[in-house]
């Protein structure tokens, strides 16, 4: 029987979690996107009523990594901001730096994986969502997507 040092070692996950990158250097957390595809994952909001409930989720895979990273809306937009690209196919071959942040999910505060967004990328971003009015913040005032 294997000797495990941490609780998480006894409960491996298919997808990347904050525990996988916590404590790594920025260089170790800088990854190259290999592919981005749809997968069926457990639907945590419906699983109590239906243990087999699934939903589609976009998953990003990185070169040399064993696990993919499931995208939520916040994570997808932060990667798009950093890369200056809203098309998933154009993310391939590009590098991002993963970070650990706290968020509110499923009724409590929890740690999660996010993409580091440089100030320059953020301030050049143009966001159009149903929840927000569109806005442009940038030095040149031009649309970049």
Count of discrete alpha- or pi-helical segments spanning 4 or more residues = 5
Q: Overall pLDDT, averaged?
A: 79
Task: Please state roughly what percent of the residues sit in beta strands, choosing from under 5%, 5-15%, 15-25%, 25-35%, 35-45% or over 45%.
Answer: 35-45%
Main sheet properties:
5 strands, antiparallel
Strand order of the main beta sheet, please? Answer: 3-2-1-4-5
Could you estimate the helical fraction of the residues in percent? 10-25%
Residue stretches low in confidence (pLDDT < 50, at least 5 long) are 127-145
Describe this protein's structure.
The chain is of the alpha+beta class and 145 residues long. The protein has one domain. Helices cover 20% and strands 36% of the residues. It is built from five helices and seven strands. The strands form two sheets. Strands 3-2-1-4-5 form a five-stranded antiparallel beta sheet.
């Amino acid at each position: 029987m294997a000797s495990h040092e941490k609780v998480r070692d006894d409960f491996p996950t298919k997808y990347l979690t904050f525990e996988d990158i916590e404590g790594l250097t920025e260089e170790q957390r800088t990854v190259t996107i290999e592919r981005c595809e749809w997968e069926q994952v457990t639907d945590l909001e419906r699983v109590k009523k239906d243990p087999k409930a699934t939903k589609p989720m976009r998953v990003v895979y990185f070169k040399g990594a064993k696990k993919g990273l499931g995208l939520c809306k916040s994570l997808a937009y932060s990667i798009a901001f950093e890369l200056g690209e809203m098309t998933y196919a154009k993310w391939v071959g590009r590098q991002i730096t993963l970070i650990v942040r706290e968020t509110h999910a499923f009724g409590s505060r929890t740690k999660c994986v996010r993409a580091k967004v440089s100030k320059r990328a953020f301030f050049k971003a143009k966001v159009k969502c149903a929840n927000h009015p569109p806005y442009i913040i940038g030095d040149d005032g031009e649309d970049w997507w």
